[in-house]
TrEMBL record:
This is Pyridoxal phosphate homeostasis protein. Belongs to the pyridoxal phosphate-binding protein YggS/PROSC family. The modification N6-(pyridoxal phosphate)lysine is found at residue 35. Gene3D superfamilies: Alanine racemase. Keywords: Pyridoxal phosphate. NCBIfam families: YggS family pyridoxal phosphate-dependent enzyme. The lineage of its organism: Bacteria, Bacillati, Bacillota, Bacilli, Lactobacillales. Residues 28-222 form the Alanine racemase N-terminal domain. It comes from Streptococcus infantis SK1076. Coiled coil: none annotated. InterPro entries: Ala_racemase_N (IPR001608), PLP-binding_barrel (IPR029066), PyrdxlP_homeostasis (IPR011078). The keyword Zinc-finger does not apply. Pyridoxal 5'-phosphate (PLP)-binding protein, which is involved in PLP homeostasis.
């Protein structure tokens, strides 16, 4: 594994996708998902210029966060979060990508001592194996979510089915973008809704075409 070469290639390909989508340079941030690599490899990634680190599990997040506290990097929790673990993670996380219920939001509100940046996870594809609000569920609880002033709802996050073809990917990502824009237009308190967390190693190009501002890439760094 040539981490330096892989990192350069990822950034070049993301930049190319941004250009092909007719978007501005720097409009998409790359989150390096380090759930399958050790602390030393994550540190090496940061040294190669990676500015965003993403972890799926609370224990692994905390392990890397504390070991790499001297690094200038933004920390993302991208996996699902149990309510009982909110108190463990909230002091440290910069962005949480998988806020998928009102009860979880209420627990974050209860435990937070600062405003926490969160993405609302939506299950646009309707896959039973995926977490997240349906469009209808989310619209129904928006006023309740918006009343929680310790959370800044920066945008929406979604995941497409693993086997989805280009046309289905574009449909899912476009619907997510349209929902984000609709919510932003409501101008609700604590809901700037300016960001979209969509796209992984296999589908980030389609996600960037549909307005993604954060892509979550793991395997492409470590192939």
């Amino acid at each position: 594994m040539d981490l330096k070469e892989n990192t350069n290639q990822v950034f070049q390909q993301v930049t190319k996708a941004i250009t092909e989508a007719g978007r501005e340079d720097g409009s998409v941030s790359v989150i390096a998902v380090t759930k399958y690599v050790d602390i030393a490899t994550a540190a090496n990634l940061i040294d190669q210029g990676v500015q965003h680190i993403g972890e799926n599990r609370v224990d692994k997040f905390l392990e890397k966060y504390h070991a790499l506290s001297d690094k200038d990097v933004t920390w993302h929790l991208i996996g699902s979060l149990q309510r009982r673990k909110v108190k463990d993670i909230i002091p440290y996380v910069d962005y949480f990508h998988a806020l998928d219920s009102l009860k979880l939001a209420q627990e974050i509100q209860k435990r937070a001592n600062r405003k926490v940046k969160c993405f609302l996870q939506v299950n646009i594809s309707g896959e039973e194996s995926k977490h997240g609000f349906s469009k209808e569920e989310l619209l129904a609880v928006l006023p309740d979510l918006s009343s929680l002033d310790q959370i800044e709802y920066v945008g929406l996050m979604t995941m497409a089915p693993f086997e989805a073809e280009t046309e289905e990917l574009q449909k899912i990502f476009k619907e997510t973008q349209e929902l984000q824009q609709y919510i932003r237009e409501q101008q609700l308190p604590n809901m700037p809704m300016t960001e979209l967390s969509m796209g992984m190693s296999r589908d980030y190009k389609e996600a960037i075409q549909c307005g993604s501002t954060y892509v979550r890439i793991g395997t492409a760094f470590f192939k």
